[in-house]
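step 3/5: co-fold with 4'-deoxy-4'-aminopyridoxal-5'-phosphate
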Amino acid sequence: MDATTAQHTIWPEVELIRNEFPILQQTVNGRPLVYLDNGATTQKPVSVIRTMQEYYTTYNSNVHRGVHTLSQKATAAYEAARHQLAAFIGAHHQEVVFTKGTTDAINLVAAGFRKDILQEGDEVIISAMEHHSNIVPWQLACEEKKAVLKVIPISDQGELDMDAFASMLNPRVKIVSVAWVSNTLGTVNPVREIISLAHRQGIPVMLDAAQAAAHIPIRVHELDVDFLALSGHKLFGPTGIGILYGKESWLQKLPPYQGGGDMIKHVTFEKTTYNEPPLKFEAGTPAICEAIGLGAAVAWVTEVGIHKIQAYEHQLTEYAVAQLRTVPGLRFIGEAKHRSGAISFLVGNHHPSDVGILLDQQGIAVRTGHHCTQPLCDRFGIPGTVRASLAVYNTTDDIDRLVEGVQKAVTLLG
Ligand code: PMP
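step 4/5: write tokens
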């Protein structure tokens, strides 16, 4: 479809979708809100809000240990949410660990590798476009074990150098951990190729799917990925919840992350035996309401249709890139061939935060700064970017407002 096609012919259903998000129906600084900060967090549909309200209003209770009715209901809903998440990513429910989010999930895996797998001289491969949460946990593990953190370089367009990656693989590499989608560049990485190259040498792969989950269909078994992390709040769900997918064999092999209630089979002062995964990794009272809310979020996405979402966002991204390109002095940071709707740019010599503040004054929410990817910004020699990141409820009208807003900001900044 022509990138300049009007919104109503791109996807009429978007207006119905928008109606399900109460927060979008407001004005900010006197203008109808244009929310383009979905890479940071997405808004929540009424079905998620109601599900969470119903939990606290009618069956709030602790899970797994109670014999009473409310506790059984809470346990059933919590475990049903695990099944929903498993179905959403094409996994078995035993392979889905509830975590606080992507950061927590990566830390869980990195802590396990740090304790039981990494040895001096081993290597861990990440990429130059990683979020800090997929850098620092590995850095800490490597520092402690005197292992080496290796970084896949990227091109000026923001694409992984796959030849370099292939040549970095060797028997010392114990894991490859990379983003499926870059939160700063919008690059969609060739994850199938990454997994197949690594597996050829028996190396496991972890995918950071924080920026993929709300935009791209995920089938972990088909991908044959070993670990995958995502955050509920970037997937129309609440904060404080996410998941780690781990192949069953890996979850058996990894040591517990934290000790406490629920993760044990039997405790004596001499020796503790652990519960089976996934509970082995869920010490303490979990984020029950949030897990149930995340279940409702993936039910919502499934009802809309992740393939439809992907197709619509693809068109909207093309439209946004084409329209932004008309702004004099605007340059994109990240122009990968396969890209998502996280669109980073700079205008002239203006500081990203100045542009962001002036957009906010017009009711347009974008993110500015390094987006927790400082090494990536250093790679491009920039302090940060202005990032507009799309979700399924955004429209071509939102993009038109953004373009107008950037033009106005540039005029004001002189
Ligand atoms: N990885 C990527 C690519 C992200 O965009 C983010 C969030 N900005 C994270 C990891 C961390 O997610 P969370 O803060 O929800 O743990």
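step 5/5: annotate
Residues 39, 101-103, 131, 133-134, 179, 183, 208, 210-211, 231, 372 surround 4'-deoxy-4'-aminopyridoxal-5'-phosphate (CB under 6 Å).
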